[in-house]
Amino acid sequence: MLLKAWSTVLFLLISTACSANEAEIQKAIESRLGVKVESVTKAGYFGLYEIYADGNLFYTDEKVTAILIGGDLIRSQHALNLVDLKTNRNITEERLRKLTAIKFSDLPLDRAIKQVRGDGKRVLATFEDPNCGYCKRLAKDMQKLENVTVYTFLYPILSEDSLKKSRQIWCSADRAKVWNDWIIDGKTPGGRDNCDTTAIKRNLEFGRRLNITGTPTIIFADGERVPGAVPLNVLEQRLSQQK
């Protein structure tokens, strides 16, 4: 995509357009950049407007004379961030979390590996590649969680070997055991990989629609998505907020 291809912060000058209306700003941005704009909102700083398009955030003035944009904005380490210095809040990150939230009820949980510990009242879902080092770190931390239900979506995006391992795990009689044997203990999956693995293909299609570009990606019950292996204390904090 055009926005994701830029790897440095750019000030892109655009021909002037007398736009104080959010609909007009949307039209101007779409015509100039060739992207589908999902929302235009006043940023609350410097008279800027927040533009959300293609899973990314960038900013423009009311006349659309210039835009401020950074590269790889879909990840947590943004090349461009709007930060409120009074509160030390990362406004860009907060807004992206809200805009990229996923309804937990919309997740196809039948295509995930389900593990229940204790009463299982607290829930979260993860998208993981079996060859992802950060996924292995996350899995070890999640073993320490109590009273939780974890839905793991096999999401092999790193290599052909990732796809093979995912198929072997999905085809096994005890998916959770084989997954844990590999992701935690390093015991390579064996057995066949030629069962019906349509679920994995559909997970990949589903994840791409949601712009899930890295593993692990964690989705909490309130729909917030968090990329990367977050520490155990953060997991506990977020799970404790579930009602």
Structural description of this entry:
With 243 residues, the protein is an alpha+beta fold. Helices cover 32% and strands 22% of the residues. It has two domains: 2-99, no CATH class; 104-240, Glutaredoxin. It has helices at residues 2-5, 22-33, 91-99, 133-142, 160-171, 175-183, 198-209, 232-240; strands spanning 10-13, 37-42, 49-53, 56-60, 66-69, 83-84, 89-90, 113-117, 122-128, 148-154, 217-220, 225-227. Strands 1-5-4-3-2 form a five-stranded antiparallel beta sheet. It has a five-stranded mixed beta sheet with strand order 8-10-9-11-12. It is elongated. The two termini are 38 Å apart.
Give the helix tally: 8
The CATH C-level name of the largest domain is: Alpha Beta
Number of strands: 12
Compute the average pLDDT. Answer: 84
- CATH architectural arrangement of the largest domain: 3-Layer(aba) Sandwich
Largest sheet: 5 strands, antiparallel
- CATH level-four homologous superfamily name of the largest domain: Glutaredoxin
Q: Low-confidence spans: pLDDT under 50, at least 5 residues? A: 1-19, 71-78
Strand order of the largest sheet: 1-5-4-3-2
The share of residues in helices is: 25-40%
Shape: elongated
CATH topology of the largest domain: Glutaredoxin
Order of helices and strands: HEHEEEEEEHEEHEHHHEEH
Question: What value does the Rg take, in angstroms?
Answer: 20 Å
- Tell me the β content: 15-25%
Q: What number of domains?
A: 2
Span between N and C termini? 38 Å
Overall SS class: alpha+beta
